[in-house]
Design goal:
This protein is an alpha/beta fold. Helix content is 34%, strand content 15%. The protein has a five-stranded parallel sheet. Strands 6-7-8 form a three-stranded parallel sheet. Helix 3 links the parallel strand 6 and strand 7. Helix 1 packs parallel to helix 8 and helix 4 runs parallel beside helix 5. The relative contact order is 0.13.
């Protein structure tokens, strides 16, 4: 057995044939300013940054502050998302707009929401939009429920990553159904990333210990009392959880197991 194999260069996250050192993906909404957004993202160590095309200026409005000034595409992979879309058609059009704005960029995060109260995904509409986008040449990372059957269907359809929720978007409740996530992970041949519901670093660590390939978050960082400090905490939580998963935890036991042997004691 080889020891000391925790070198991040040997344990990369690969999405759509591109590899990343960081397994933390972050959003850009809800910050107090663009400056704070940039500082928090840098502290997180994230390499993939998701952007809500319907809510964020990345060039659509030349006279307004441009997010890309603090999140430059030559440093980060910009991941356009369809937040705020409630129909498959709206989601598809939003991705097509993003491709135009980002000079042919094909990697997108698809989400089609079912209602404004829960922000749960509309699964039939998500399946419809995913099929249309894949047929149009997009690499689709897809937000979905924690239903293992739906997750597998999206993978088989051709999505490059499946992103089940841990809890409702922006709730901070942490992982509510570990068993569904485990079922999704165990049957997947594409990256599985928790998307939505993380509240603090321990939630992120648990997701990684379960075997998730990464975690996407926004509110947990942006709404922290100190977003930059929380971004650093999330970075460390992701790294610790991934190392613990790779190391393999000890078995759970009902009774005590002495750390020191009970035989051959010195009289």
């Amino acid at each position: 057995m080889a020891f000391g194999t925790d070198d991040p260069n040997t344990d990369t996250l690969t999405i759509a044939s591109r590899s990343y050192q960081s397994r933390l993906l972050v959003g850009t909404g809800k910050y107090a300013s663009l400056e704070e957004t940039g500082e928090a993202i840098r502290a997180s160590g994230a390499e993939i940054v998701t952007v809500a095309i319907r809510r964020t200026n990345i060039g659509q409005s030349p006279d307004e502050p441009n997010l890309l000034d603090v999140v430059p595409p030559d440093r980060y992979t910009i991941l356009p998302n369809t937040a705020g879309c409630y129909t498959a058609d709206d989601a598809v059009r939003t991705c097509q707009l993003a491709r135009e704005l980002l000079d042919g960029h094909n990697l997108v995060k698809l989400e089609v929401l079912g209602d404004q109260k829960t922000l749960f995904p509309d699964v039939p509409a998500t399946l419809e939009a995913a099929r249309t986008l894949i047929d149009d040449g997009f690499d689709v990372m897809v937000y979905t429920s924690d239903d293992p059957i739906v997750a597998k269907r999206l993978e088989e359809m051709g999505c490059v990553a499946v992103m089940p929720l841990a809890a409702p978007i922006g709730s901070g409740l942490g992982i509510q159904n570990r068993y569904n996530l485990l079922s999704i992970i165990e049957n997947a041949e594409v990256p599985i990333l928790v998307d939505a519901g993380v509240g603090t670093a321990s939630d992120a660590a648990i997701a990684m210990e379960l075997g998730c390939d990464g975690v996407l978050m926004n509110t947990a960082i942006a709404e922290a009392r100190d977003p930059v400090m929380m971004a650093r905490a999330m970075k460390l939580g992701i790294e610790a959880g991934r190392l613990a998963y790779r190391a393999g935890r000890m078995p759970r036991r009902r009774y005590a197991s002495a750390s020191s042997p009970l035989t051959d004691l010195v009289e």
